[in-house]
What we know:
The complex is a heterotetramer, with two copies of chain A and two copies of chain C. Chain A is an alpha+beta fold. Chain A contains three helices and five strands. Chain C is an alpha+beta fold. Chain C has helices spanning 13-21, 55-72, 103-120, 141-148; strands at 3-7, 29-36, 40-41, 44-45, 48-53, 77-83, 85-87, 92-100, 123-128, 134-136. The relative contact order of chain C is 0.24. Chain A binds chain C through residues 7, 9-11, 55, 59, 62-64, 76, 78, 80-86, and chain C through 35, 51-54, 56-57, 60-61, 82, 93-94, 114, 117-126, 136-140, 143-144.
Amino acid sequence: MRNVKLLYFAWLRERIGVAEEDLAVPDGVITIADLIAWLRLRSAGHLAAFATTTSLRCAVNQDFATPETLIATGDEIAFFPPVTGG
Amino acid sequence: MRNVKLLYFAWLRERIGVAEEDLAVPDGVITIADLIAWLRLRSAGHLAAFATTTSLRCAVNQDFATPETLIATGDEIAFFPPVTGG
Amino acid sequence: MANIRVQTADFDIGAEFAALCVGRADIGGLGCFVGTVRDTAKGRKISAMTLEHYPAMTEAAMGRIAVAAEQRWELLGCTLIHRVGRLLPGENIVLVLAASPHRQAALDATGFLIDWLKTRAPFWKKESFPDGTEEWVSANDADEAAASRWA
Amino acid sequence: MANIRVQTADFDIGAEFAALCVGRADIGGLGCFVGTVRDTAKGRKISAMTLEHYPAMTEAAMGRIAVAAEQRWELLGCTLIHRVGRLLPGENIVLVLAASPHRQAALDATGFLIDWLKTRAPFWKKESFPDGTEEWVSANDADEAAASRWA
């Protein structure tokens, strides 16, 4: 098990219902893609938030990540829609 | 003869020695190109100012003109180097 | 070198120009872009725009964007200010300012900085409508295309 | 619609932004370019820059440039201010400001306006050097090329 901090922004946060959660992730969850598949099972809100990944973006430790990015203990992992600032 | 007002700017003005002059132009001077050829004969300063036409620009009645532009009585004809503002 | 800020307060455009230029005479041109809240979105009147961001990441992401601009153009300074929170139509959202010895570098860097801010900095906009409903703004394919010109 | 001025006095950048935006909420983006006097020219220190112009033609030429921009892009306003007379290093020379509902139009119009001002408005610059000599600035092929991109 690895402890990670998850952050959610914009409509992902609204669907999941919390802005952040500290979770212990099973050893089989190795990449961001694995994490998304695992998070879908946590609640109906998570399933709604992660239903499709086409408009999903992820940052690990405040830098943009990909589905292949590996998860390490202590990571801060943020999920959010494509950015719309500026 | 047609009466025109001539204006000179930047180094053309400095070479000719005056900022403007009112001149009566002979009937054979029909275009701006003719006028330049005629002006070259007026003084050493004019000859220096109009020695080459590659870096010469002209406006007739405050709008850019070409060597082929025709001259009319009462025209305000300005000669200057390529502009360098901005 | 870049001056980067995320704030709820408005910014003073004239003061930001002055701060970038103070005490120096090697600048030939300054490019600037200011984004403001339009009162309509896809033909619908909006009553407000709310900007959310990812505080721990935002300034770092903006710093990386500024460094990318500094690597591409000869910049003597740049300023990136992005507001967050609830903004009304007509209010300023974002300021980009780039100073260079050369006009074209200042203008190109300004375009680059706003294109990348729109696609690489973690901000999200939500529009509020007069009937009380709210909607998250969808990312714009045109913005992505504009940003990828610089890739 | 354009606000066009030729003046010896400096301009207030913040006030010009404010004047263009006052009372309206249909603007999405403002592009701006400010040209300033650099203290060097081709590696030589300069002590001053003197701007001469053709008063009867200048504002008309600037107006034609603004109209050309308004025909190409959806502009909600633009401001062109050009200073004349003797300016010191670090001082402002020219301000271009373009407001549009859309970011890219504001930025493109800003680039167009300064490119055309540099090649189609009757201003001439003379540089003064610390040894007392003076020299007229030569027109720049790069400026001509930049302007012709929009032709």
